[in-house]
Amino acid sequence: MANGIEKSIELAAPIERVWSALTDHEAFGQWFRVKLDGPFVVGQVTTGQITYPGHEGVKWTSVTEEIDAPRLFAFRWPHSENPDADISSAPSTRVEFRLKPTAKGTHLTISESGFETLPEDRREEARDGNEEGWEIQVQNIKAFVEA
């Protein structure tokens, strides 16, 4: 993924458990470290606050784009310097979680695309920061679903 990010991981957990960890907003919040105000619903905005150390209180906003149980969950989130920007018009990227059952559990691929739509002066920083973030998050979900 030249302009995007892609992380794959094998999880020793059944696909139903991984699916729930991704799509149940409270479970998602536990491993991702975000307190979400409500569930993920296709076409609707989900809001909350990051609880990740060093980023506490940062606003979370996303729009759920697809929920195709138990194989694809996707949302779009803004990359705006203004945390109150309207998500429908703010520059954003798409995050996809793709699941496949395996003999030992679940193969999870996380991808984020659309960085080319961000303002040029913020593109590289946003991509690099999220690349590092997804490295951490694949380990977080692994620890969560395999516990």
Automatic annotation (TrEMBL):
Source lineage: Bacteria, Pseudomonadati, Pseudomonadota, Alphaproteobacteria, Hyphomicrobiales
Pfam family, one: AHSA1
Family: Belongs to the AHA1 family.
Species of the source: Sinorhizobium fredii (strain NBRC 101917 / NGR234)
CDD domains linked to this entry: SRPBCC_CalC_Aha1-like_5
Coiled coil residues, start to end: none
Domain annotation Activator of Hsp90 ATPase homologue 1/2-like C-terminal: ranges: 12-146
Protein name, as recorded: Activator of Hsp90 ATPase homologue 1/2-like C-terminal domain-containing protein
